[in-house]
Specification:
CATH topology of the largest domain in chain A: Helicase, Ruva Protein, domain 3
CATH topology of the largest domain in chain B: Glutaredoxin
CATH superfamily of the largest domain in chain B: Glutaredoxin
Distance between the termini of chain A: 87 Å
Structural class of chain A: mainly alpha
Mean pLDDT of chain B: 92
Radius of gyration of chain B: 24 Å
Number of helices of chain A: 6
CATH architecture of the largest domain in chain A: Orthogonal Bundle
CATH superfamily of the largest domain in chain A: Cytochrome C biogenesis protein
Strand order of the largest sheet of chain B: 3-2-1-4-5
Low-confidence stretches of chain B: none
Number of helices of chain B: 5
CATH class of the largest domain in chain A: Mainly Alpha
Radius of gyration of chain A: 32 Å
Helix content of chain B: 40-55%
Number of domains of chain B: 2
Largest sheet of chain B: 5 strands, mixed
Shape of chain A: elongated
Number of strands of chain A: 0
Distance between the termini of chain B: 82 Å
Structural class of chain B: alpha/beta
Number of domains of chain A: 2
Order of helices and strands of chain B: HEHEHEHEEH
Strand content of chain B: 5-15%
Oligomer: heterodimer
């Protein structure tokens, strides 16, 4: 029973919306490239899905365009540029690094930096310097107290 | 072992920084909600990549059964007599019904409105215009929806304002309402008519 379940898990790949075999390219290498590209492109209608994952009609049209261009021998960069020219940065699921997205990309570094500063601050406080030595007046007073019966 | 003398500035910073951060986040959130309310901030809006550019090169067949001339990129090249509105619509599109009266009003004002029927059967699009009135002076059919992708269209209705030099100045995704005309389209038409 368990072995069967495991086999089922291994056999079941990720499920793409692209279930229609008629949409796929006959060349598996090209189809692979088209899928990789499609996973980088945002469906403009559903917005949180890639065009490979979406069932929207526009996503299907864009999948077809990607496959046509891959089959026509255009490079990955050319296909991405084609869609970027029409839909702008929004179509890219991986946003480009520019002035507008600098803060977005810098957030992990900033968060890590802030955490490091916090840890450093806490450590420094724990290792606070020893209190200053007693002044001669204090030492004399201490000695006097020691002498008291 | 005694505590080191606490630095008063450090205490103040420890107290003040979280307050400042919370205040900043609150301000940002408030600005976001305000933008959502007034419509100036729309997280689902896809900004047009064509603003400030000429429309893409395209030719389209006329809508079969209509006697209106079709639309091609050549018809949108400057210098134009006045700014024009290019409107992607479909008979199956409900928001297109909402925006239709505004397009008719623009036609009455003499604004050239060019229509592109998106993924629509010619008979259905013609029926839609026969029932509700035809605001268009040019009418093209984009049944495969390929030219629409060249324009960066991601739904219907979608409208583009092209100035007299043939440059796209404004894109509106969704129905043009009375508010849209009052706040955006009207002032832009006045500005680009000059």
């Amino acid at each position: 029973m368990r072995r069967w379940l495991f086999a089922l898990l291994v056999a079941s790949g990720p499920a793409w919306a692209l279930s229609d075999p008629a949409e796929q390219l006959p060349d598996p290498a090209q189809e692979q490239r088209a899928r990789a590209l499609g996973r980088e492109l945002r469906c403009l209608v559903c917005q949180n899905q890639s065009i490979e994952d979406s069932d929207a009609e526009l996503a299907r049209d864009l999948r077809r365009i990607v496959r046509e261009q891959v089959a026509a021998g255009r490079s990955d960069g050319q296909v991405m540029a084609f869609l970027h020219d029409r839909y702008g940065d929004f179509v890219l699921l991986r946003p480009p690094v520019n002035a507008g997205t600098a803060l977005l990309w810098a957030t992990p570094v900033l968060a890590l930096g802030a955490g490091a500063l916090l840890v450093l601050g806490l450590r420094r406080r724990r290792a606070a310097p020893a209190p200053a030595a007693l002044t001669p007046a204090e030492q004399a007073r201490l000695a006097e107290l020691d002498r008291m019966p | 072992m005694s505590e080191a003398t606490p630095n008063p500035w450090r205490r103040r910073a420890l107290l003040g920084l979280p307050l400042l951060a919370a205040g900043g986040a609150g301000l940002g959130f408030w600005a976001m909600l305000r933008g959502l309310g007034t419509g100036s901030y729309d997280p689902h809006g896809v900004p047009s990549a064509l603003l400030g550019k000429a429309p893409p090169d395209f030719t389209l067949p006329p809508l079969a059964g209509s006697d209106l001339p079709t639309l091609a990129a050549a018809d949108l090249r400057g210098a134009l007599a006045r700014p024009v509105l290019v409107n992607f619509f479909a008979s199956w599109c409900v928001p297109c019904v909402i925006e239709h009266p505004q397009l008719m009003a623009l036609k009455r004002q003499g604004v050239p409105v060019f229509g592109i029927a998106y993924k629509d059967k010619a008979a259905d699009a013609l029926g839609f215009l026969a029932r509700r009135g035809n605001p268009y002076t040019r009418l093209a059919a984009d049944e495969p929806g390929r030219v629409a992708i060249d324009w960066g269209v991601y739904g219907v209705p979608e409208s583009y304002l092209i100035d007299r030099q043939g440059i796209i100045r404004w894109r509106w995704a969704g129905p043009i309402t009375e508010d849209t005309v009052a706040a955006d389209l009207g002032p832009l038409l006045r500005r680009y008519s000059a």
